[in-house]
């Protein structure tokens, strides 16, 4: 850690609602409540999913580094048309299929070193809360029932589309369902769906059925975080309709409902198209980490600012892999040289040049992270420190060789005195300790410090 470090600058985050960066000020001092929309587990997760969860893991880690106590909720949509269809095709139950892919997703997240959220609720465990919320919306006159279905009435909610900024005449029906001609307004969306033959269902005041897509997150975020919380995140494709509908449902039931900061990450694109399962133009996380170290994929995703789209290419992944290998190889080489000196007590100060470099890096790291998590600049910022370690390593080894030669030749006192005026071995050692500590501290905050030993990682193919 840098000496005499100033406190971190105040964090600014881009709010999708206001369309600008704002100072992040949590509702409760020292505590942050964050909800991020999770996956629909009917297949292996693709790197578009990795994009979202790495982005919010970086935020989660940085908030914790700043000293906040973070309540992080990320859900699983474990009942859905796609899950039902896939389960029927596979000849297994919805619960079996969704649970299997939830477990696979969690393995992928562990490989990418995404910290487990505080809570990972499943929709099917919160049907009671969903029914209660729908009932409240209906009591407030914002929804209507029709033949076992319940629809949200967008005409009853003037704020509708305040998040996305869309016009109502541009508002298309939700992408997951066909248009229902029984609706009062084509834009009305399902809160509850009447059961179809052979589908899982639950008892409700409107008959057998299951939740619509959007209501689940309104119910679960309110249950775990309350009606007002700090951050709601997800991919930018969720702004409409999912988050727009969430916002409408929550406020229709409880007008005081509010998300202080809406955050959305960019896509991963392949051939200039958003990567998605429905378009069958995706790579799974497994596809990539079979070829590259998981930290190479994490680095690749962080190399682009979280709000921008990432362009997938083999070349970009190769570059990320090379960069990660360079970091780990440099740290490994440094660690090998420093190993004999780690237990030594010394009064020698870190040389001024390296101390200034560490202080500068520490300050620039905090400035970049505080400015809406500019990870692109942060990753570029390691270059000078890594070069400095390698330079010190080379000079240290040369000096050691020179001193060994001098020792053998038993040089005259005058020459020995001249040698004392130059940089000594302990100066190099302290310089490398300081540089190594700074890099390790910062890549740990970013989730890029490998879980296995550096020796093991550098021996493997990155």
Describe the structure.
46% of the residues lie in helices and 13% in strands. By secondary structure, the chain is an alpha/beta fold. It has 2 domains: 12-312, HUPs (Rossmann fold); 315-459, no CATH class. Helix 4 (127-139) packs across helix 6 (239-253) and helix 12 (382-409) runs antiparallel to helix 14. The longest helix is centred in the last third of the chain and has 28 residues, at 382-409. It is elongated.
So, CATH architecture of the largest domain?
A: 3-Layer(aba) Sandwich
Strand content: 5-15%
Total number of helical segments?
15
Number of strands: 13
Helix/strand/pairing class, anyone?
A: alpha/beta
Biggest sheet statistics: 4 strands, parallel
CATH fourth-tier homologous superfamily of the largest domain = HUPs
User: What is the CATH class of the largest domain?
Assistant: Alpha Beta
Number of domains: 2
Query: Uncertain spans, ≥5 residues at pLDDT below 50?
Result: 416-420
Which strand order do you get reading across the main beta sheet?
4-3-9-10
Assign the CATH topology of the largest domain: Rossmann fold
| Helical fraction | 40-55%
Distance between the amino and carboxyl termini: 28 Å
Q: What Rg, in angstroms, do the CA atoms define?
A: 27 Å
Query: What is the mean pLDDT?
Result: 93
Outline = elongated
How do the SSEs run, as a string of H and E?
Answer: EEEHEHHHEEEEHEHEEEHHEHHHHHHH
């Amino acid at each position: 850690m840098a000496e005499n470090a100033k406190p971190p600058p105040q964090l600014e985050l881009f709010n999708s609602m206001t369309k600008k960066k704002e100072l992040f000020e949590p509702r409760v001092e020292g505590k942050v409540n964050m909800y991020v929309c999770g996956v629909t587990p009917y297949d292996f997760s693709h790197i578009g999913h990795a994009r979202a969860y790495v982005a919010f893991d970086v935020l989660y880690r940085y908030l914790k580094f700043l000293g906040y106590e973070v309540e992080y909720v990320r859900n699983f949509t474990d009942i859905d048309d796609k899950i039902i269809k896939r389960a029927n095709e596979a000849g297994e139950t919805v619960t079996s299929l969704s649970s299997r892919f939830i477990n696979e997703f969690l393995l992928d997240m562990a490989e990418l070193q995404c910290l487990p959220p505080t809570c990972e609720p499943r929709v099917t465990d919160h049907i009671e809360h969903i029914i209660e919320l729908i009932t409240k919306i209906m009591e407030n006159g914002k929804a209507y029932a029709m033949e076992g279905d319940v629809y949200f009435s967008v005409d009853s909610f003037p704020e509708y589309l305040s998040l996305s900024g869309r016009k109502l005449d541009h508002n298309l029906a939700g992408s997951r369902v066909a248009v229902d001609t029984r609706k009062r307004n084509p834009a009305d969306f399902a809160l509850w769906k009447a059961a179809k033959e052979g589908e899982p269902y639950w008892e409700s005041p409107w008959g057998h059925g299951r939740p619509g897509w959007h209501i689940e997150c309104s119910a679960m975020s309110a249950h775990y975080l309350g009606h007002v919380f700090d951050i709601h995140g997800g991919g930018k494709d969720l702004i409409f309709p999912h988050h727009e509908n969430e916002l409408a449902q929550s406020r229709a039931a409880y007008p005081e409902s509010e998300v202080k900061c809406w955050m959305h990450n960019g896509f991963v694109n392949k051939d200039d198209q958003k990567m998605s399962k429905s378009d069958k133009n995706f790579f799974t996380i497994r596809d990539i980490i079979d070829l590259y170290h998981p930290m190479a994929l994490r680095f690749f995703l962080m190399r682009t600012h979280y709000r921008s789209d990432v362009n997938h290419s083999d070349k970009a992944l190769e570059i990320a892999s090379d960069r990660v290998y360079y970091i780990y190889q440099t740290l490994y080489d440094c660690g090998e040289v420093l190993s004999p000196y780690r237990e030594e007590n010394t009064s020698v100060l870190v040389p001024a040049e390296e101390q200034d470099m560490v202080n500068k890096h520490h300050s620039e790291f905090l400035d970049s992270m505080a400015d809406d998590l500019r990870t692109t600049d942060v990753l570029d910022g390691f270059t000078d420190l890594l070069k400095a370690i390698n330079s010190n390593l080379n000079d240290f080894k040369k000096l050691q060789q020179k001193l060994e030669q001098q020792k053998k030749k038993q040089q005259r006192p005058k020459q020995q005195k001249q040698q004392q005026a130059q940089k000594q071995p302990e100066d190099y050692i302290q310089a490398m300790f300081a540089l190594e500590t700074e890099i390790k501290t910062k890549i740990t905050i970013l989730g890029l410090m490998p879980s296995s030993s550096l020796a093991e990682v550098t021996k493997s193919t990155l």
